[in-house]
Amino acid sequence: HYSQKFRDWLSGGNFFLGLSVSVSSINPQDLFPFGSSAGDQSLNQGTDVTQEVPLDKPVMFYDGKFSKIYINTNGFVALDKPSVQLEYLGNMPASFGMIAALLGDLDTSDGVGKVYFRQDSTPALLQQAANYINTAFPKSDEVNPIHAIVVTWVDIESHEPDGPDHKRNTFQLVVASEEKISYAILLYPREGMQYQSTRGYTMHAGFNKGQEAYFLYRKRQGPYYRITDDKKTSVQKLAQQTNSGKRGVWVYEIGTSSQFSNIVPGEVALLQEAEVLSQSYQVPKYPDGQLVVLEHTPYQHSQQETLEGVYHKAEHPSPYQVHTGDLQPGNPHFVEIEEDDNIQVGVFTYSSQTCANSRQECSSFADCQDYATGFCCHCRPGFYGNGKQCIAEGKPQRMNGKVSGRVFVGSSPIPVEFANNDLHSYVVANDGRAYIAISAIPSSVGFSLLPLASVGGVIGWAFALQQPGFKNGFSIVGGEFTSQADVTFQGGGGKLTITQDFRGIDEHDHLVVNTRLEGTVPTLPPGATVQIDPYSAVYLYSNNLINSSSSRDYVVTLEDGSTVTRTYKWTERISFQSCQHDRTARPVPQTQMLSVDQVFVMYSDSDHVLRYAMSNKIGDINGVQPEENACYTGRHSCDTNAVCQPGQGNQFTCECATGFNGDGRTCYDIDECRETPHICGPNTICNNQPGTYRCECMEGFQFASDGKTCVVDLCRADLHDCDVPVRAQCSYTGGSSYICSCLPGFVGDGRTCQDIDECQPSRCHQDAVCHNTQGSFTCRCRPGFHGDGFHCSQEQKTRCQVHRERALASAELGPRGPRPVPGQYIPTCDSQGEYESMQCHSSSGYCWCVDQDGTEIYGTRTGPGSTPSCDQVTLTVGPVPLLSGSHLVFAQSGKIEYVPLEGQDIKKDKAKTVLHLPEKVIVGIAYDCVDKMVYWTDITSPAISKVHLQGGEAIPLITSDIGSPEGIAIDHLGRTMFWTDSTKDRIEVSSLDGTKRRVLIDMDLENPRPILTDPTNGYIYWSDWNRESPKIEAAHMDGTGRRILVKDNLGLPNALTYDTQNSMLCWADAGTHKVECMKPGFSDRRQVLQGVQYPFGITAYGKNLYYTDWKRDAVIVVDHHSGRETDEFLPQVRTRLYGITLAYRQCPTGRSHCAVNNGGCTHLCLATPAGRSCLCPDNAADMSCQEQRIQV
């Protein structure tokens, strides 16, 4: 509803020339009072002078509250301490919060120019400010400021290296505030605006939030708003135009204490000047296939001025020249779109089939419609897409993928190769903002890729904010298409081809894209930054092909402050498959223009991540803008999971996207699985996801051909006639069908399989003997020879010599020969090659006694500065037994310690140190109950290593191709280990010796940390503490069957454990400060304990949970039945505790299909709920490796 003030204003009769609107420009005498007579203070004379000013009342700026400001000579007021001027002059937006009244390199050294400032709460001045604000916002409630800041720059010269040109500018900034809202009033008298640039840079006016926190320790450029653009004419117009009804006066809402969306400009332009009559015309098509775009603007009255480029769209400058007068079609200007005859445009897989037998080809959010020649899919209301893929309107979109290829940098003859680098993208669909990050980019190419923000440009095109009557890419082509872009750098800088294959929506409702880069880019040195100005690109649409061509400029700033402007030509071809059976469908406009602004590019040399961000709009090729409704500009306050619905004029409403509830400004996910328990039908598990849900078949069932009904898997139910599982595999194919096939090492039809005698074609070494077994064979060296049977030799070394050579092989080469890597133990051998009785660790200074096999003798370890008397030690035959009962094993910075349990109580006085590596940070820890070995992850090397529970040497297992290993878990039955890598964002598995590595999961991971194995049931569990969407997930041990178990009400789920006795999955959360448990697959989540401080690791034993806490530097014991804390163990040295695990005296009982003969697998055997999978290591060169899925 209009306020009474606005109705009164309208009732004045001729509102074009109402009392609140003045067509004359302001003069210096129209400024707010300033100078010494007004009680002002003044800045010291000079250039780039800053004065900190504590405030009587705070100022609201964006969503922050500030109690002090910084006034600077260079025409701005900062909300944070400003950086040096080289960082922001000509390079907006700056890294700090800024109100730029008129930013430039200014100088008051001549004593004539002055910068005055004061705080003012006098009624006269506050009323003057209120008049300007209320006139500028006639539809809003009346504003009555209680405090104002007045800053005036008077007769200021530019600071020019060749001396002053004696031109002077005068302008003023007033910040007026109520309790919870602040406004900026900018005044530019016509006579006071004599120059528009300094040092070659156009001066700027606008608002900039500065850098803001992003994810954990990262920062990104926050929002900013430009009143002027990079043209001097936009600065001239500051004194000629207005958004407040008075020329030269500009009013903006700049901050509120809650729900601030963006800078809001005043609403009263000079109505006579803003009046524009539109003129429509047809875009002609020319014989050679070129698209001709006529450069013109709608007809304007010759005596009227346009506000284009300053008031509404300063940050969206039009790429076309403005022409007034009549249209001249006989002499057109055109944009050339190059055709490529080699590109393959496929025909949609829609055929003459009907919806009756093809409905499953449509999205579950689409309707199928039959036509005369076939069928088409159409997204339902509330969704958009091509019918085969439909997504909810207003819902943010995530995109994951890989980047590969080869890029030459400059004249280098050696390319930089990419192989499966992670690409992650997040798009706020209701305002067109897109964020893209590519990881593991080496420094040798990272800075040189900064200009290529268009790598993410096609993502921006797909989800651009739609102007009325126009469609973004996903609305037209869906999520399956191919984009090929050629980037030609001007001046012989090379050519790069970017091919992106979009593969639709995966099981997590994320879009999948694979990107390949091939070609050459110009060299940019380390430390260089790149600024990309707003740009536009015209897209030409046909049935199955979209073309675009444009030129783009970018400015490179080197570390010494020098700049250079460069250009490249961008040519893009998008091929897709459309449905052409619907002849009544509304045609897509043949041409559309993508407008891109707020482009941000950054390469981090420390974490090797390349980041791009941009805002995208799709609309008319002539740059004609609709009314400034917030839904079309993106400057609304709707939730990121909401749809902005435009109303009349500037009115709009916010509606939560499908799958969410709320008032539109705050939206919450609907848990369809909880609210509608039977939504998925019988024999299914419902998996809730943001904005939607997914139905999965229970174990023993699988989807029928309709993709919805879960039917009995005949193979898992043992309703088949295949041979026994040790010889054959049954593969269910749906309905009553299945396939029988013999396992490797057997031959037959699958129903009857016979063993193959592998020893017939001599597979072993000539000095070895082959022994055939069921489905496999073994090789053993003959007496007098040594080796694994595949390689045998007569040379023999002692165990100590082999151990020492292996350790030295991984040592660093120093000036006097090999020297151990810090933290590595090198054994010493006597003259006979046997272990010396005393062994010492060169880095830590610890020494201990060993037996003839090099095993540490329990109780002999001494600290730095002393040595044990090993000659007096009585050696024990066989392994030293553990103390009675089980033990807690935990990591404390660079130490691994254990403390025995008596029953389930901690024997605190019996704590011992297993290993001390002071230069390491040990994070994750796991225990192999078979070999009594402790495995751990180290993030400093980084590496994965192991050591015997009773101490001894540290044995490195994995030291390459590893980023930040954190969680680790052991499958004691299948003899494999699993770990998470939070830098490479993946989960890997290998054999226990670190060989046979394979990446299991590398998609949709942000910060994976703890990981667990349940080998008896064939599952792994892990948590991801991604601050934006933390979750706990499960998968089969071969990486299949992945699903989210918990995603709601999580903060930082650092700690995770599986209680095998009770089949309970428990976790401790440092964000919610809770310990919770649930049975996987059941909705029985329950809180065990509340009020924990900062848990990191957790393990379960009997009725107790044991967790480590960073703030308490302790191991805390919790009875998970009563939900009470029962005990606390404080180590002797108080430092941060990391991972914790349980060392059982005896291995837990359980069966696994991988426990016997490696499950019949040649390499990795990974258990699944239905059997096992035989998998090959990544990049396996062994041709004998065979992969298969075996169900029993």
Description:
With 1192 residues, the protein is mainly β. It is 6% helix and 41% strand. It has 12 helices and 85 strands. The chain has an 11-stranded mixed barrel. β76 and β77 (1086-1090) form a beta hairpin. It starts with a helix and ends with a strand. The relative contact order is 0.05. This is Nidogen 1a. LDL-receptor class B repeats lie at residues 932-974, 975-1017, 1018-1062. It is found in: Secreted, Extracellular space, Extracellular matrix, Basement membrane.
Instruction: Give the tally of β-strands.
Output: 85
Q: What is the C-alpha radius of gyration, as a whole number of Å?
A: 35 Å
Q: Mind summarizing the main beta sheet?
A: 11 strands, mixed, barrel
Quote the distance from N terminus to C terminus.
69 Å
Please, what is the average pLDDT?
80
Q: What is the SS-derived class?
A: mainly beta
Proportion of residues in extended strands: 35-45%
Helix content: under 10%
Shape: globular
* Oligomeric organization of the protein chains: single chain
Point out poorly predicted stretches: 1-23, 271-352, 812-822, 874-884
Number of helices: 12
Biggest β-sheet: strands ordered side by side in the sheet? 25-26-27-37-36-33-34-35-29-30-31
Domain Thyroglobulin type-1: 797-870
Subcellular location: Secreted, Extracellular space, Extracellular matrix, Basement membrane
Pfam family, one: cEGF
InterPro entries: 6-blade_b-propeller_TolB-like, cEGF, Cueball_EGF_LRP_Nidogen, EGF, EGF-like_Ca-bd_dom, EGF-type_Asp/Asn_hydroxyl_site, EGF_Ca-bd_CS, G2_nidogen/fibulin_G2F
